Amino acid sequence: TAQKETLGFQAEVKQLLQLMIHSLYSNKEIVLRELISNASDAADKLRFEALANGSLYENDSELKIRISFDKEARTLTISDNGIGMSREEVIDNIGTIAKSGTREFFQSLSGDQAKDANLIGQFGVGFYSAFIIADKVTLTTRRAGDTQAVRWESAGEGDYTLETAEKATRGTEIQMHLREGEDEFLNDWKLKSIIRKYSDHITMPIVMKKSEWKDGEQVETDEDETVNKASALWARAKNDITDEEYVEFYKHVSHDFQDPLAWSHNRVEGKQEYISLLYVPSKAPFDLYDRERKHGIKLYVKRVFIMDDAEQLMPQYLRFVRGVIDTSDLPLNVSREILQHSKDIDGIKAGSVKKVLGLLEDLAENKPEQYSAFWNEFGKVLKEGVGEDFSNKEKIAGLFRFASTLADTEAQVVSLKDYISRMKEGQDKIYYITADSFAAAQHSPHLEIFRKKGIEVLLMSDRVDEWMLGSLTEFDGKKLQSVAKGDLDLGTLEDEAEKEQQKKIEDESKSLIEKIKTALGETVNEVRVTHRLTDSPACLVSGENDLSGNLERMLKAAGQ
Ligand code: ADP
Ligand code: MG
After folding, report:
1. What is d(CA 190, CA 178) in angstroms, rounded to the nearest whole number?
2. 294: which DSSP letter?
3. Tally of CB atoms within 10 A around 193
4. pLDDT-derived band of residue 29, with 50, 70 and 90 as boundaries?
5. d(CA 245, CA 251)
6. Would you place residue 105 in the very low, low, confident or very high pLDDT band (cuts 50, 70, 90)?
7. Which of 159, 299, 487, 536 has its CA 20 to 30 A from that of 93?
8. Binding residues for ATP, per the UniProt record (predicted)?
9. First and final CA of the chain: distance in angstroms?
């Protein structure tokens, strides 16, 4: 039936459209970027599905994106011969925000337009950007292999219509009816310059009609012209690529609207052959701590897109890294199962991890401000690394930054190397304390003796710290020692006179200790005279091999 159906948007979509139009208006050129990016993704998907089913090409395997406009009708049209969408897919992908994070998204909106615009990019809502410049959008699409096409139409105000349609060619065509005043999108030269600026790196041709000057006017000819470079950016030589191109490519692969913090582009040759282009984002996505979340590496084999989110290519603790890995070592029909058992993939992963850690070390060394921005966004995730990646443990730990009693502020700026360089004469351990808040760590009575003696102590209060310390017991040959655990032996840090004085107090206190022990009974293991306190009368201490007090509290809170 060709009946027209009217369906309502999800409430969030409506809200999102309003927000999108207002906050991105000053940056409306991105509409083209987003729609071209979708068309390119659709071509990638077709290529991938066609590996198993060649008939999907329907004798048309020259994938491309076409952009055209009609001055009279005031329409701008983007069409592709990619995978297309079925009716269900249109409803799911275009009528809904299918992403799980919709609620978090609305909760994180700040009302600050610049910030909110950046958030939008993380939610895979690029398609809706069309409404920034259009007051009506008509999408006609036919999925590869299907006979029936479907037409979706909306003015972006709460509902949309859906009807069956005829479409000879496979793929998706999006026609935008431009809003009043958006005539710049009806200009041949302007469109071409936007495409070159934002979409040059798209690997398939973006074609437009060639135009000529006739009687002082630009007129369209019948001839096609490829507007973009249409070559894989990562396969080009480094010194051939500008920073702007790297940044635009990042936005395409990451779906992020913000610039990346840093990137690393490498061509590996020899036993293994692959190219990697890896980016560190400048902001953490809202679902960074969701361990189920998708990974950000796209896998290509000899320039052919194979899959998104190839989780075998980056360890969990580097799940914020985005980018592309292109190898000649794998077959085109590689599956996720094959990836799990591939020695080649293990080698590529190990090499890529080294590159990312190297990039971070370089940032820490040469751009400390950028590194501290990175640390604030991703430090907690990186800390998972010492437990996950044994072979790079020392390197990873070298990237850690902590708060300490030296500055006595919450800012995490002290590296283990800094700490060691400031160790007192005779000090052989790295002292730290963990607590469930910075204030609790900072004011712990366990610190009194250290403050008195001027010995620096690392103040740890991130939830992940306890787990991290379970794996990181040593750095650069120095043991990490909790100041709240076991017998505090400051060894050579104490002088003889002090020791004698302590011995005397211990002898004198024997009967008092006995009385306290009897009073507390089973609730404690031991009662001891201590010299670690200078102001507080008493404190609780864990045994050297017990869980720390903080970890015990965390486990209790988690119901264990
Ligand atoms: P994202 O690209 O981040 O997923 P978009 O809002 O840009 O978010 O697109 C939403 C979804 O709509 C895409 O994931 C895709 O499934 C579908 N889609 C959009 N444009 C096309 C297209 N040209 N061809 C096929 N599917 C498309
Ligand atoms: Mg998109």
Report:
1. 15
2. P
3. 13
4. confident
5. 10
6. low
7. 299
8. 34, 38, 80, 85, 93, 99-101, 122-127, 172, 336
9. 58
> H helices of 216-260, where?
243-254
Look up residue 256 and give its two tokens. Answer: 């992020």
Short-list 282, 295, 267, 425, CA closest to 352: 267
Given this model, what pLDDT does residue 489 score? 63
Place of tokens 């041949």: 188
Residue 133 contacts residue 179 (beta carbons within 8 Å)? yes
| Phi-psi label, residue 462: left if phi above 0, alpha if psi -120 to 50, beta otherwise | beta
Strand order through the sheet with 429-434: 403-404, 458-460, 429-434, 478-482, 474-475
Q: Which two tokens stand for residue 189?
A: 């030269």
Residue 350 phi/psi, 5-degree rounding, is: -60, -45
- Name the nearest CA neighbour of 483 among 540, 524, 536: 540
For residue 301 the two structure tokens come to 């084999």
In terms of DSSP bridges, do strands 206-214 and 149-154 run parallel, antiparallel, or are they unpaired?
unpaired
Tell how far the Cα of 121 is from the centroid of ligand 2, in angstroms. 9
Q: Identify the CA nearest to 70 among candidates 183, 153, 217, 180.
A: 183
Q: How many CB atoms lie within 10 A of CB 485?
A: 19
**Euclidean distance between CA atoms 501 and 495, whole angstroms:** 10
Protein residues placing their CB within 5 Å of the ion ligand 2: 38, 126
pLDDT in tens, 257-309: 889 999 999 999 988 899 999 999 998 877 776 666 665 899 988 887 888 77
Give the closest residue (by CA) to ligand 1 atom 23. Answer: 39
- Nearest CA residue ID for atom 18, ligand 1: 38
Burial code of 115-144, b = ≥16 C-beta within 10 A, e = fewer? ebbbbbbbbebbbbbbbbbbebbbbbbbbb
SS3 content of the chain, % helix, strand, coil (to 5): 45, 20, 35
CA-closest candidate to residue 162, choices 329, 396, 282, 6:
6
Structural tokens at position 194: 């936007």
**Tokens (6 digits) for 13:** 């979509």
Task: Give SS3 for 160.
Answer: strand
CA-based torsion, 21, 23, 27, 32: positive or negative:
negative
93 Cα to the center of ligand 1, angstroms:
6
Decide if 201 contacts 233 (C-beta within 8 A): yes
* Digit-coded pLDDT (tens) for 390-414: 999 999 999 999 999 999 999 999 9
Tokens of 122: 């993380």
User: 306 C-alpha to center of ligand 1: Å?
Assistant: 18
Report yes or no: 263 and 279 within 8 Å, Cβ to Cβ.
Answer: yes
**In this model, does residue 158 exceed pLDDT 90?**
no
- As to burial, measured by CB atoms within 10 angstroms (0-12 exposed, 13-18 middle, 19+ buried), residue 444 is buried
- Residue 123 marked in a binding site: yes
Length of the chain: 560
Which mutation among 36, 37, 41, 78 tests ligand 1's pocket best, with the greatest number of atoms within 8 A of CB?
41
